[in-house]
Amino acid sequence: MDKKIRLLQVIPRLDIGGAETGCIDIAKFTTNKNCYSAILCSGGEQIKNIDQTKIKIFIFPVHSKNPLLILFNVFLILFIVLFYKITIIHVRSRAPAWSCYFVSKLTNVRLISTFHGTYNFNNFLKKFYNSIMLRGNAVIAGSKFIFDHIKKNYNYSKQLFIVSRGIDVNYFDPKNLKIEESSKVRNRWNISMNDFLILLPGRLTFWKGQMFFLRTLLLLKQENLLQNISAVIIGHDQGRVKYKESLLNFIKKNNLENNVKIISNEPFMPSAYNACDLVLSASVESEAFGRVAVEAQAMAKPIIASNIGGSIETVIDGQTGWLFESSNEKNLANLIINISKKDKNSLKEFGVKGRKNVISNYTVDQMCSKTLEIYKSLV
Asked: What is the distance between the alpha carbons of residues 292 and 311, in angstroms, rounded to a whole number?
């Protein structure tokens, strides 16, 4: 136990996502190490999964980019820090990072940030706004890709750590007793057990590559190569109704209804992974880490991922999966056909190597232990 560590994590919302899951994982881990742990957010559906007798939850509008609310949040966070004797503030987004920065300066409480993305910038003001993530006492990069991005684009000389995100390898485990049989899941989706099934998980947004994938399937259909190949896209639109409609319209217009389905939510993702033959991460923009590629490998499923961003690190090309040329429909189409023709034992070998890769490098315990060591070094 380290009594000096009294942790406040600040994140816009606790909805479904990699940053949000990591935040909760850290909160649970530090609590189990007898540290005080609290989260400040504006709400979110994952709050119901948190034991609030162990982890303190504060709900205020820290998601807002409104300058007045950012200023108001300075006083709010200042009160929390002083009243609850916080010694570490860990912030995970730019807008609340501005509030946390001033609190850190006023109280001398250590401030650490996690750089969760590339935070695109096209002018000086946007770059200055992004730079708040680098103004604390230390920065965590979720992958070597993000580490290199920071070094390349920002003049940063303070403590910069690489802590790869981790997943729960007991939850994402093909031997998990809670996993439904593949036949039951496929029946629910109305997909034959004889079909080669491709799964594309991820929230519905253009850069995740759902439309790119549909164009790839259309290319295969036009070449009469979609026999016995089915696909399921799982993801919530999170308010992007027009984008979801565009996907559904594309499917209908090109008569792909028998080949691909869009499912808004699957209650137990390990069952979804278990039911497929191949997992796809089709992002057309660089992901900071890319949880799908890691979750798929943990479930002993071969993965195809675009050759940009964090996937270059997490997928061992030709051993645990394959990397395709980003935004190259023909390259992806050829890979899909070649993989669909492989025998099942060959695909199982990819899956076995994939799970070993995740257990060696991308577990929750590894991520949390490294983060806790950083906290200790700061206090």
From this structure: 9
Q: Of 136, 129, 81, 139, whose CA–CA distance to 110 is shortest?
A: 136
Q: What residues pair up with 8 in beta bridges, in sequence order? A: 38, 89
CATH number, domain 6-166+363-378: 3.40.50.2000
Residue 278: φ, ψ to 5°: -150, 140
Can you read off the two tokens belonging to residue 122? 């096209």
Query: What pLDDT is stored for residue 337 in this prediction?
Result: 96
Per-residue pLDDT of 253-271, as tens digits, reads 999 999 999 999 888 999 9
Q: Residue range 67-72: average pLDDT?
A: 95
> Which CATH code of 3.60.40.10, 2.10.260.10, 3.40.50.2000, 3.30.2020.30 fits the domain covering 182-361?
3.40.50.2000
Instruction: Give the start-to-end residue ranges of the domains of the chain.
Output: 6-166+363-378, 182-361
CB 233, CB 263: distance < 8 Å: yes
Is 1 a residue whose pLDDT tops 60?
A: no
Residue 184 clears pLDDT 80, i.e. is over it: yes
% residues pLDDT > 70 (the chain): 99
Segment 135-140 mean pLDDT: 94
> What pLDDT was estimated at residue 65?
93
Longest dimension (CA), the chain: 67
pLDDT exceeds cutoff 50 at 296 = yes
What integer best gives the mean pLDDT of the chain?
93
CB neighbours of 99 closer than 8 A, spacing ≥ 6?
10, 62, 70, 71, 73, 74, 76, 77
- Dihedral class, residue 228 (left if φ above 0, else alpha if ψ from -120 to 50, else beta): left
Say if pTM beats, i.e. exceeds, 0.85: yes
Residue with tokens 């099934």: 197
Buried b (16+ CB within 10 A) or exposed e, 217-245: bbbbbeeeebeebbbbbbbebeebeebbe
- Within the chain, residue ranges assigned H as helices are 18-32, 67-83, 94-107, 124-130, 144-153, 182-189, 210-222, 241-253, 269-275, 291-298, 311-314, 329-340, 344-361, 364-378
Structure tokens at 241: 């109704």
For residue 378, give both structure tokens. Answer: 């700061």
